Fold these 2 entries.
Entry 1:
Amino acid sequence: MEAKKIHLPDNTKDTDRSPSGWLIIWREIVRDKLAYASLVFLTLIILFVYGVSLFLDQKEIVTVDLFSIHQPPSKEFWLGTDYGGRDVFGQLIIGTRNSLSIGILVTLMTGIIGITVGLVSGYYGGKIDNIVMRIVDFFMILPFLMIVIVFVSVSPKYTILSFSLIMTAFLWMGKARLIRSKALQETELDYVQASKTLGSSNLKIMLTQVLPNLSSIIIVSMTLNLAANIGLESGLSFLGFGFPESTPSLGTLVSYARNPQTLEFRWWIWLPASLLILVLMLSINNVGQALKRATDARQRRG
Amino acid sequence: MSFLEVKNLKVHFPITGGLLGRTIDHVKAVDGVSFSIEKGKTYGLVGESGSGKTTTGRAIIGLNKITSGNVLFDGQDITNLRRSKMSARRDIQMIFQDPYSTLNPKKRVFDIVAEPLRNYENLSKREEKKRVQELLELVGLSPESIHKYPHEFSGGQRQRIGIARAIALKPKLIIADEPVSALDVSVQAQVLNFMQKIQKELGLTYLFISHDLGIIKHMCDRIGIMYKGRYVEEGTPEDIFTNPQHIYSRRLVAAIPDIDPRKREQQLQFRRTVKEEYEQSYNDYFDDKGLAYQLQPVSDTHLVALPGRG
Amino acid sequence: MGNPILEIENLRTSFRIKDNYYAAVDDVSLTVKKNELLAIVGESGCGKSALAFSIMGLHSKANVEGNIYFKGRDIANISPAKLNELRGKEMGMIFQDSLSALNPLMIIGDQIDEIIYIHNNKLAKKDRKEKVIDLLDKVGILHPAFTYNQFPHELSGGMRQRVVIAMAIANEPELLIADEPTTALDVTIQSQILDLLKKLKEDIHAGIILITHDLGVVAEMADRVAVMYAGQIVEIADVYTLFENPLHPYTRSLLNSVPNSNVVQSELHVIEGIVPSLQNLPREGCRFSPRIPWVDSSAHEKNPELHEVNPGHFVRCTCYRNFYFPEKSKGDQHHVVS
Amino acid sequence: MWKFTVRRIGIMIPQIALLSILIFIMAKMMPGDALSGLIDPSIDPATIEAMRDRLGLNNPWHIQYVDWIKGVIQGDFGQSFRFKMPVTELISQRLINTFWLSLATLILTYLIAIPLGITSGRYNDTWADRLITGYTYVGFAAPLFIFALIMVWIFGFHFGWFPTSGSVKPGLSPGTFEYVLSKINHLMLPALSMALIATVTTVQYLRSEIIDTKQKDFVVTARAKGASESRVYNRHILRNSLLPIAAFFGYEITGLIGGTIFIENIFGYPGMGQLFLESITLRDFSVVTTVVLIFGIASILGALISDIILSLVDPRIRIK
């Protein structure tokens, strides 16, 4: 009766390995022209910025040169100079590199903390989960920007590292909440229960069973977070509470526009940085949204 | 001596509330259940939603914490035994209801079926692959499909993969929690027949949990009926289906639609009588909380929850 | 039985998957008479729900071809406004999942009130409320005035299904379509709902289409039965004929694969293979042939049609004449061969 | 309903307590204290020390905390050493300005979000939807401060349609019609800039909510009842999708606070956000503490309001 082996209805040979989830997602992204273009653009920007900045001397760029204040774009200064006579183009390259680096760093740190807390909280549930989530909820309500500004202005030895630590300290909660709710859903599914009855340890189930099922949501939210974090960093730098003064940043360049004269008449100082931030965030978001669509579609099919 | 013995099993879930999440009350999902299963037999646990049948099965295998009572397996007390000491537990495995969520969608069939082997047996890669392929053949799937993902299979096929995984460690007892409820009628038959076949071949004992009395009758050697966490009746299929004693069992049996359209009127009549009887004698069969009494033997094989004596 | 109130001719309902259209309902013709309960039985994916939705005009018109005559009028090709006059008034529908079929943010009373109001906005609010409470009482809700103000999630599954039924019969329709009305319910609740439907059938004299996968429910409820497989009707007969003298191989296999509480079966019959998905439906020849490979292929028709083998008993394809169950011995040797 | 509200308020109280502790810790981390501003080389350090003692600044931290809380409850937030006046007086006008700015932003946010969200959700996959989705894409990615700068640059400086700083034209007396008009004129551009960005998430949410609801079974039920398409939309789809949106506005407050810091800074609008930045640059920490406390409590209250509205709107939440 169930005598014969049941052959699968599709036309692929049985011996073929089915394409893995990531391969399918990659195909979806390539098909999405806007996202693919964004991805290519991002890759080029990153290569360019990190490559060129190797040849730029940061010290020289941030040194004040009183003889060339507020020069418009020229052959020597592609994007003119700022009020300190510093080359805007050089600052733009190094600023982009710095902004990207800190965005990536903060995203990774919040990711690691958020995933760990969310996974443990969602997997075990119960009392631990209750307490953790109450704390997370509390921090989520707080006026994040203000508190970060206060900590930035009172932290004694202020460096890039302390800046990213302060950002991380108040940014991991959102990720924790997201991961926790997904982990909770997954943990209720039978495959997790099955693993328990098959003798797998909790740690093993969390890492090898639940985590892979969160991977698409993690990658999507990390991508979107990266964009948000770059925005936050440049926003804080714009207000003067981001990078230390000696370190060029896109936000700092934009902040020169707080001078009405600069805003009105010297567009070359602030507009390129503004547009670059905008385009960077748009591209990263495009990739993120495309990833989201791709993973959603895959879930539907699965 | 019985193979699996459950003594006065209770599983209570706390209801938390208030600001501090204090425990206000308990849901008595399973409230004093005792039964035993003999080796190589199939024991059916029936009940409607909320009867506690699934919780009973999950408590035995250790997925729900047992509040009180004992579970003896092959003479050994396995009550609330931690999973880390599961070497004693590899003999009990479970088949789950939902063929879609029971397999991890991100894993290939090979990894799914090999999971228990990796936990308990140190096999070389090659041995492992051979074992997995053997298991897949045993459940009637082509051994070449080990590199596929679960979503490439139909419901019935997935359920077979679940069974392959459950029998990988050559268990002695399998707890089957509504194994065919989510499947179409024709596929149900495939899985049920298959379960009977491997039972013979591997000498398995089943605890078969279901809401479908037809399937229970077809599969089981002994049946227990649960209602709100307690037993109302236990006996052979003969006892339960031709001579149900408890008013709830009678109502349950009367509710099964008869497959013969000529018996329609008769069935309707029967159901009406039982319904009246149920309404009239409800208080005789249930205590003031609407729960069943203790089981009392009415024959060698037949126990019914009746008031009095206990 | 009376005159046909519903006549369906060559209905075909297709859905788009990626770039192609696939027919979920293919060449279905049937009639329902007044006072008659027609059961449509089949497994998941056979197209029975798509058929029900097509009759109610709930699928986009572009997807539906063929004619559906309701009291002589072709409702497959009428304007939405005209269709709305019929829906809910002369045609009622009972849905499977009562929790999702009810608006979670609206009280029960308002949801039933709405169907009365749409078709008779002259009735005063007070009278409508009275009518709703009467309806709730009629479907066996114990405290109708209280339930009127409750939200769907506050009711049990059985109670909610009663509400859905109350809604469907609010305007005493002449055609009632019940799509798996008891599938989500426990057996004891199921039997109560079925009894309620029987009672209502006598009360409102409607023609009823009952869609189900449960042969027991069919045996208890139906006057006539249509068996669907892969989008087509493979057999139609009155209920006694169908259970006592089923002809189509699919009907016979299905009846043999259910555990029957009346006879002791050592082993259930298994229908080989799987129910094909919409994209994998065989488009030519007998759609059931891949699942009975032991029957000689010459037994099938090229373009299987419904044949009237006895008055009122239709069977699709000629393969039923040559169908037999394979010998049991063939079954058990599978894992030896590999 | 009442049970839920009481429980929800019960959650809020520890939140406020926690907030006050956090702010107190921040205040302690800030260099200097109430007397630092007074430091005058001619005063003997011993005298200052004595004053410190008298003011309780040398007490153990928990006593200081209790003292501070007592003051706060009585409306005493201390002195601003820069402006040499009580913080309460200093912030009152600023608070009103920020309140109007926030209110205008909220109103604009919903005025934009609801029609766009509905159009985009109801007619999804049309050119209108694509246009709106495109806008939300850009709006979601664009940082507020850059968008606001470009708005000032174009509409403030280039076209000169709107004033580029202040909250009212100097020289007008409060109460006159011109005064009110000038207020609104100063409010428009900042509020619009903030709303155009803040509304994006609401548009997106509304759109996906409508698309989701469209596919719900109860919508099929409504059609099977014979309801006309407009009735199906108005009574079932839009109603069910708009109700959760109504509850969002409490949560918007947290977002608004971040927004006002940028917006008030860019538009030179004298509100709380600007005061905050000024005080932190001037190290006027009693003002900073007060602003953070007020905004923190506003956020907590916003979340409370949202949750209560949600429980009113969605009966399923009340039960839990």
Entry 2:
Amino acid sequence: MHNKITNWTASDDAMVENAIRRGATRRELLSMMLAGGVAMSAGGMILGRASDAIAATPKSGGNLKAAGWSSSTADTLDPAKASLSTDYVRCCALYNRLTFLDQAGIAQMELAEKIESADAKTWTVKLRSGVTFHDGKSLTSTDVVFSLKRHLDPAVGSKVNAIAKQITDVKAVDPTTVEIVLANPNADLPTILSQHHFMIVQDGTTDFSKGIGTGAFKLETFEPGVKSIFAKNPNYFKSGGAHVDSFEFFAISDDNARVNALLSGDIHLAASIKPRSMRLVESQPGFVLSKTTSGNYTDLNIRLDMTPGDKADFITGMKYITNREQIQKSVLRGLAEVANDQPISPASVYHNAELKPKAFDPEKAKFHFEKAGVLGQKIPIITSDAATSAVEMATIVQQSAAEIGMNLDVQRVPNDGYWSNYWLKAPIHFGNINPRPTPDILFSLLYASNAPWNESQYKSEKFDSMLVEARGLLDEAKRKEIYGQMQVMVAEEAGTIIPVYISNVDAITEKLKGLEANPLGGMMGYAFAEYVWIDA
Amino acid sequence: MRTFVLNLIAHRLLIAGLTLLIVSFAVFFATAMLPGDTATILLGQAATPEAVAGLRAAMHLDEPAVFRFFRWLAGLAQGDLGTSYVNNVAVADLIGGRFVNTMRLAGITTLIAVPVALTLGITAAMFRGSLYDRIVTILTIGVISVPEFMIATSAVLVFSVYLKWLPALSFANEVTSFWQVLKVYAMPVITLAFVVSAQMIRMTRAAVIDTINTPYVEAALLKGASRPRAVLYHALPNAVGPIANAIALSLSYLVGGVIIVETIFNYPGVAKLMVDGVSTRDLPLIQSCAIIFCIGYLALITLADIVAILANPRLR
Amino acid sequence: MTLSTPFSSKVSYSFSWVGMVGLAIIVFWAVIALAAPHIIPYPIGEIVDEDYFGPMSSKLLLGSDYLGRDMLSRLMMGARYTVGISLAAVCIACFTGTALGMAAAVIGGWFDTILSRFLDALNSIPSKLSGLVVAAAIGSSINVLIVMLAVIYTPGAYRFARALAVNVNTMDYITVARTRGESILYIIFSEILPNIIGPLLADFGIRFVFITLLLSGLSFLGLGVQPPYADWGALVHENISGLPFGAPAVIVPSLAIASLTISVNLLIDNLPKKIRDRSA
Amino acid sequence: MENLVEIRGLKVEATTDSGRRLDIIKGVDLDIAPGEIVALIGESGSGKTTIALTLMGYTRTGCRISGGSIHVAGKDMVTLSERQRAMIRGREISYVPQSAAAAFNPTKRIIDQVVEVTHIHKLLPPAEARQKAISLFKALSLPNPEQIGDRYPHQVSGGQLQRLAAAMALISDPKLVIFDEPTTALDVTTQIEVLRAFKSVMKKSGIAGVYVSHDLAVVAQIADRILVLRNGEVQEVGSTETILNNAKHPYTRELLSAFEPKPRGDNLGAVSQAQPLLEIDALTAGYGPIQEDGLPLVRAVQEASITVQKGRNLGIIGESGCGKSTLARSIAGILPASSGKLTLDGQQLAPSARQRSHEQLRELQIVFQHADTSLNPAKSIEDILGRPLTFYHGMKGSQRSARIDQLLDMVQLPKALRSRTPAELSGGQKQRVNFARALAAEPKIILCDEITSALDTVVAAAVIDLLKELQRELALSYIFISHDLSVVEAICDEIVVMYRGQKVEQITPAISKIPQHPYSQLLFSSVPKLDPNWLDSLERDPELVKAYGQA
């Protein structure tokens, strides 16, 4: 069960979204922003057919059908509230952002023509002209102001309220120009604006069930928890628009059922399948796997402010007893890269390759457990299928620990309510973090002393000041060095064990063309509908 | 005599009403006990204490549970199922279409499963002790001992993935013709029919055997009636009561127990809706779904009682 | 048709071979369940196979599961949970339901009405969904599972026992006991119970099957036994991806469930009969 | 004259629980001439019904015909296929069951069941079949012959139902009708009407009959020939005349002697100063919701006042529905009386048994009609008898065991029975255990509710003798409730006649007080006598029958 119900982690999937597009303009300003992006991933590729896809000519027509893995009555078309992968897919079909991230992780212009700032504090956004909403109304600066200001209103309940707070003022200068003022300089603003939540909606919208946006598809049917049907938007501002005539999207929460639906030809794409289903897909002619290596990871969090996490030796012991190779090989069937307990994956240019993963060493682990005086005690670990592969990881750690006489009591709790009731709260629990476009966002969200999701309650003044320092730095090498040091600090000091970076695997029919690697998320960063075509 | 029967039926309805009241009470307080504060969950990371307090007041969460219960009950009585906490849509709208789906699936399954189960149960009773009877008995136990997700998954693999005869999903394909209805509903219906038939077969067989051993069936045989006639014409009408009860109990499963089938075939029914409700702590939705299941159950049971009353001339 | 012929004093038992086969299978699983921790070839959490859904081999007699763990070990340990939880739950459900059902039949009146309404109400909530709500409310441990399953199946046992007891309650020997001045408890346990124990056992069997199945259904919904342990239903579910390959990991636990439930019912349908050898 | 039925060496075997086979019919020969009525008589279990059913080629579950031949109208029922037998059943041979109430399907209208035979065998078109049924209803003197068939079985009385069952059997103009104790379940006043109806129809149409019964007096009225059966073997065959007057076989004599007038143990003189033991004063009891006057809707017993003297026995007689059983239940406190007073040995009794003291409950015991339902089938005789000993007298261990032996001895049962369960006893043995349980309480008075009606004549007589003997030894009093006058006469000092909930008359046979009330007269005159001409010569006042008869 891969139901990510009320999964706040997933709610930030949007932040890492990028898109691949023909003919996008590049601005000098953006080259400066490269620092905030993520490098082209070596892992991201479409198995066996990447070159074909690039070479092929898109075909028009057909009805695209795809299935995600989670959906509920909480499904929404309000980008500010989007929290599930299915929400992002729908929003990507209906709306556009000011910027988007390309496959190299570089922010590109979408609804904005250019975004400029002299001091990285006051920003001027020049909007593309001739963009119309589905209802015929033209896009103006008031729409942008409305869309951005919504995130600051607590009544809206925006998922990115914490990030949006740095925006102190948004105003329309003229119908195509918007001015954004930040509390402090932040060179990453264009990257931040590429997150799904910052999609542009029409001024004054309160009822989002109509899904009026500027996107490549118009909404036809939207049944929360059931399905959505979209029709190609003939007036899309990008030349050509979508290739398919219509797009139907829904969720099949059962992994097997999702794979079977694909194999039986009912759908073109089954998102995020479990490693154990790969063999079936591979054995069937006409189907392929699309693998995306990104910064997604499931981590074991040991709170430093609670027993037994308050004993540093316990944490060290846990790090040694975690058999990362076995998790990578058996749990994830190779669809993962061994990690070194810090959140910046090799897909990022800021990844510190010097920092080696701790080798599996039961003897050292035993030594540290003994030193912490916990050997033989019954230590509860909360896990749930809500976090990808967390249950399997827990059993592997449990088994290794059992062999040195360490009694880890794995308690699986239901998916439902996991994120609100256990995550961040239990002394030892699992989390699942989706990729973020910049180390700044990752560290701010997860490791700064005041981070909202400080999973292990890691607090370090030195770390906090380094974070602020790096954020303002324009010297790329210096910035990389600081981020490198911060990675070491997290790996050594924080209570989060990140055993592997997990690849996302989408299974698709060979008829579906144009789906390309995206280093930051499956389904082309959830925006695939606009780019793929069906080769009948 | 007529008024007597009407009184009996009125009594049954009264009992059903009373049960429903108890159920609504139980449902309300059971769901109210779910951990996790609704307001906090709804507000998510924007959950400042003031916002939480405000939302709680707006949703009447700050009132004692008893008040909320009566407020809810009064709403129910007026047909107002409340508003979903999660997306501010009237619960009735959320349930509406799903309810039709659930009823359609249940209805089609009933049309298939009941005649098959009755035929098997009655014939097994008719030829009690024969090889046929033994096979039916063993098969029914065999079938109910296979988890339904196993039946469903195997069916999908065979008929959708390998043979490609039937779609793997039940709603993904637009249904326009009768033929398509057959194709789309075939697998969920067969899976469910497997699950609900076994008990019906067992109970029908037992009920008919009970009446076969009566003097009036013997008398019919001694009139020269064939065995099928003795069973169908004489034994069966007297077994209507217990059979109706068994059918009602089995069919009640089709209203709320089909969550696994709904999940595997991605069929948008009420059971899945309720699971959604549990995940999102959408209390009005959970409560309404639970009440719908209870009404379904009580309606079936009461209907079975009434059928039993009407089938018995001594009460008529 | 009774014939009064001279009584033979010898008492014998007849036990059909079908019942014996059922008993043998149950005993087999019970022994496995008891001995499992001592006889499993590998720790059940240990990954022993680089591959997954491995076939049967001399090293792994029943192949490996989706993580490459030994299926034989997992199946043996699973017996503990399937047999143990189901049995405990069915015992509690049948005992409570039967006791209440008999009491309702004997006491009658308001006690009967209120209890019947209450349990009917309980019965009207679909079992898997109430399981989900309970698990969401108080989490799922083995004890919670047992109590939950028991509560879900008590109303059915109650209904059944009550219907039987109501019939027996009209018998003259109950009236005799009442006019003798016997207590309710005596009437319930000494006069009624022995006369309905047969059908109750048959009900017990079918309820056992339902509980086993509900347990597997709950594992589908993510509730159930804590890892690395798993009941058979959970084993089927976690390995169901192996179904297309006919992996033993999914076939074997399915067969195990079927063998247990079928044999319980075979045994109960063919319990040893005490035979006093008399005519007709 | 060619025989209609020729049975030669018939053997029927039954399979026991343990799979052992044994013969229950051990080589029976039987001939029936056309138009002749032959009675099969014997106690329950003698095989009389089994033989009768084999005439239709039918055996009940677990039995099968294992030998011999059964020729009916030239066809051997043994060798025919099931389909061929079905062709004959209902058409050439038909069956009138013991309890028509049970043999009618409760969910079908009577007429549909009566004409079903003609439908099955395609004998008549439906309309004609209906007409024929109605003419049969007339011939069987059923009231409202046109409409009665449109009712459901529960809407007509037992006597009517029994005649309707006969109509069902006769509608196909069969060659042979099997009557299986067709009047046993009826009241005596009703029985006469039914017997008369049967007899006249049979004689008129010249149909042969097999009449199965345990009641010699009834058989004497209708049969040409009698076959006495015991343990699946023919004991004696002869014309009715011969059997009644010149019986050779000891068992037949025993049967006959049960009808002889019993010598009365005259204990009247011994208890000359009559002391009231149980006083029933203006007792009213019934069922249904309580009305404004504080009495129930249906008053089964109204204002009955009866006194039982110490050491003497009171009989309560009346036909079904007269309220005699309700009276017994009220006295025992099972059905609390709505009004009236009960006094036992000077102490007033509470209406409900629950409110009575332990001692009071012990002193008044009740024995029910059906030993089958009165004895818990799951318990051994030892447990059944031991419980009141422990409960009332606190006995345990060897003391209790010794007392159980004593009790078994008292009711003349072998000690070996103590480990058996009721199902392993015969009807008479069960009734003795039932009685012994009441004795175990050491009561002052025992209420006997129809305790002999379910027993065969010979067995019933033995039980009555036992009761008398015990009374002499234990200084007991009985209240003996029955519909059978001969039984009550045999044991009671005084007889109360009840009719429709009311005490009609109290008579004392010992001092030749003869019934005065017209109902009592009707009742007393309806008891069949061993005289074959009794039925034909019996003259009853049609007005009386109309006023009190229930048929």
